[in-house]
Amino acid sequence: MMYRRVCVGVLLLGVLNAYQARADLVIGYDGFETHTNGDPVVTTDYPLTQDEYSRLTPDVGTAWIRYSVQPNSSSIVTNAVAYSGSQSLSLKRTTATGGLYCGFGTGVPINPNHQYVFSCEYMNANDMYAADNHANMLFCDSLTGTTQRMEGAWSYYANKTAGGPGNFSTTYGVNTQDCLAIYRGTGSGSGTYRYMNGVNDNSHNMEGIGTAGSGIGSLLNPGDWYKMEMVVTIAAPVAGLYSMTYDTYFTNLTAGGSRTLIRASTICQNKLTTASLANGWYVITGANAPVGTNAWSQSYFDNITITEVPEPATMSILGLGVLGLLRKREHV
What we know:
Elements: H1 2-23, E1 25-30, E2 65-68, E3 73-78, E4 88-94, E5 99-105, E6 114-124, E7 134-142, E8 148-157, H2 167-172, E9 179-183, E10 195-196, E11 199-200, E12 206-209, E13 225-234, E14 244-252, E15 260-267, H3 274-279, E16 282-288, E17 296-310, H4 312-330
Antiparallel strand pairs: 1-17, 2-5, 3-4, 4-17, 5-16, 6-13, 6-17, 7-8, 7-16, 8-9, 9-12, 10-11, 13-14, 14-15
Helix pairs in contact: 1-4
């Protein structure tokens, strides 16, 4: 009996170890330490004349590629600031329309039974235009492997003095406050962002979170590093399609703040298909044009990460199964 108990205990330990290993499975990552200071992560010519595939390769994942680029923009590796190590990604956008968006994929098929976390460290530059800098981070799937579909995102609009950018200010009434916004999908498949080869279908549906002074994602201090996380849960398929929701969190790392839920169970824009499962995830960073008469918009990203984690219910069932086996053995 003791032998059986030891064997089952070892099996339970193996399940727990497997859980921990899967929770740490990073399938996409760039910490920018292996690149050279000043290198662009993507080509930034405009219009698109250079080879779209002239770009850097992240530490884990497929090579960086640009999805939308307009004049007077840059996305370069910099040693001016960093959250960890000595380098980060600098996104600087000077006056013009549109924005700069670039990112990379995992090259790993999506497991619909697992959760996925898209995270980074983000800083709004504490410069003369800090009150109006803004940037965002998107997670996407792909039906074809060449065109990405935005499924969810957070966007920070530091537009306290110059008013909000475009329809965001007039539609959602945030033209006089800073606002951290979460992309809200309609579930109808409409309003999809597509960033590839310079094509930008910018019909979007953003939802402002918090009000001025609310402390719930409404104000990010310029110069502070924040950990931003989007945790994606995939539902069981219906007619071969997988709907998704995601929870968004932020943590003020500089101030030592606690992890704060911004919004839970936000509906993703589209549903995963067999093709998009096979093509894997993509993560995209972006910086929009400055507003008003400002000369630039400056943001920094570090440790951009895509993590695959086991679906909690599945691992709990496995654990309970092993415990049940152990109890059964004890009564034999």
